[in-house]
């Protein structure tokens, strides 16, 4: 489940059995943490009961409800926006600068300070630093694409208690607002 589509499909299947997507965050070891919580709404309970009756072997992965591509695409969009709003652009830029600088220093140290190698390392480092604004612009455009997809589907922008901009489905609310089982944000 290391792709956006795979994570979105996993959340979609969970939603079919009484859970709802709450958040997706990047952990300290560069892995994703997917948060799903019980869906206590009447529609969620009804959907879960129907699917448990229809797909009794779902826990074994034998028979699962069919995928709904539009629903999976919306979950993917929410995940992209949620993971992108975890850090500010300045923090993301700072992390990249730190990573590239330490990587260049490690390569330079590994090459034992040979003059030609040091020049090559500095040139590569400078080229990568010049690409940072391009990467930042791409990241913004990528998130904007999914933000517009969510807005077109009627999702509402809401700021959570940590100050992150999140999008909730029409008529929905952020996890933790009246839900004692809520996790994530």
Could you give a short description of this structure?
The protein has 185 residues and is α+β, with helices and mostly antiparallel strands. 55% of the residues lie in helices and 12% in strands. It contains five helices and four strands, in the order αββααααββ.
Descriptive terms for the model:
185 residues; alpha+beta; two-stranded antiparallel sheet; elongated; disordered C terminus
Overall description:
55% of the residues lie in helices and 12% in strands. The chain has 185 residues and is of the alpha+beta class. Helix 3 packs across helix 5 (115-152). Strand 1 and strand 2 (32-38) form a beta hairpin. The protein has helices spanning 4-16, 42-54, 69-84, 89-110, 115-152, and strands spanning 19-26, 32-38, 156-159, 165-168. The strands form two sheets. A two-stranded antiparallel ribbon has the order 1-2. A two-stranded antiparallel ribbon has the order 3-4.
Strand order of the largest sheet: 1-2
* Helical run tally: 5
Question: SSE order, as H and E?
Answer: HEEHHHHEE
Approximate shape: elongated
Helix content: 55-70%
The end-to-end span amounts to 21 Å
Which structural class is indicated by helix and strand composition? Answer: alpha+beta
List strands and helices in order, with pairings.
Elements (H helix, E strand, L loop, with lengths): L3 H13 L2 E8 L5 E7 L3 H13 L14 H16 L4 H22 L4 H38 L3 E4 L5 E4 L17
Antiparallel strand pairs: 1-2, 3-4
Helix pairs in contact: 1-3, 3-5, 4-5
């Amino acid at each position: 489940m290391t792709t956006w589509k795979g994570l979105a499909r996993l959340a979609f299947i969970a939603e079919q059995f009484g859970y709802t997507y709450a958040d997706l965050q990047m952990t300290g070891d560069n892995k994703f943490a997917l948060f799903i919580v019980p869906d206590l709404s009447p529609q969620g309970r009804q959907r879960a009961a129907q699917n448990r009756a229809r797909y009794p072997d779902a826990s074994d992965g034998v028979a699962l409800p069919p995928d709904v591509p539009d629903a999976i695409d919306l979950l993917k969009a929410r995940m992209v926006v949620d993971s992108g709003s975890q850090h500010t652009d300045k923090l993301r830029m700072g992390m990249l600068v730190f990573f590239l600088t330490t990587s260049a220093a490690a390569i330079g140290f590994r090459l034992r300070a040979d003059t030609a190698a040091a020049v090559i390392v500095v040139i590569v480092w400078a080229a990568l630093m010049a690409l940072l604004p391009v990467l930042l612009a791409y990241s913004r455009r990528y998130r904007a694409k999914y933000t517009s997809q969510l807005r077109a589907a009627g999702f509402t922008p809401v700021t959570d208690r940590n100050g992150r901009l999140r999008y909730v489905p029409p008529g929905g609310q952020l996890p933790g607002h009246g839900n004692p089982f809520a996790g994530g944000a």
